[in-house]
Amino acid sequence: MPLLEWTDKMSVGVGEIDNQHKKLIHLINAFHDAIQSGKGKQVLENTLSKLADYTVYHFQTEEKYMKQFAYDGYVPHKVAHDEFTKKVLIHQVDLKENRVIEPDALMAFLRVWVTNHIMDMDRQYSEIFIKGGLK
């Protein structure tokens, strides 16, 4: 069973970003599945690395458009992105260095953060992006 499921309520109305959000959800679910099925450390490291890399790519896309359209909420949004990225990177290091990670806590963090971020912060830029010509 997936940890997260895309729903139309998550749509920001911009196809490129919605598709990236769907990919993020897919990567989070892949990481969750790897944990749930007891995959080895190497698989977990690779899966978390893919998630981290794609998250950075996605955040760069959003931030590019925020700057392009002079979005007023850029600074707090960027701070939220940076804090998320930092937490994921800490988990990557912990996993790589054989430190104990709490998989349930990590998965809860990912599920809650991504869902809330998309449904709250990301939806706040929807109108300006759409008015700017993104579809």
Care to describe what's here?
Helices cover 76% and strands 0% of the residues. It is mostly helical and 135 residues long. The chain has a domain of 94 residues: Up-down Bundle (Four Helix Bundle (Hemerythrin (Met), subunit A)), CATH 1.20.120. Helix 1 runs antiparallel to helix 4 and helix 2 runs antiparallel to helix 3. The protein is elongated, with a radius of gyration of 15 Å. The mean pLDDT is 94.
Task: Describe the secondary structure blueprint for this structure.
Elements: H1 15-36, H2 41-68, H3 74-96, H4 103-131
Helix pairs in contact: 1-2, 1-4, 2-3
The poorly predicted ranges are none
Q: Any idea of the CATH topology of the domain at 38-131?
A: Four Helix Bundle (Hemerythrin (Met), subunit A)
- Strand percentage lies at under 5%
The CATH homologous superfamily of the domain at 38-131 is called Hemerythrin-like
Roughly what percent helix? over 70%
CATH architecture annotation of the domain at 38-131: Up-down Bundle
Order of helices and strands: HHHH
Structural class category: mainly alpha
Specify the overall morphology: elongated
Average pLDDT confidence is: 94
- Number of helices in the DSSP assignment: 4
Main β sheet profile: none
Give the distance, in angstroms, between the N- and C-terminal Cα atoms.
31 Å
- CATH class designation of the domain at 38-131: Mainly Alpha
Give the quaternary arrangement of the chains.
single chain
Radius of gyration: 15 Å
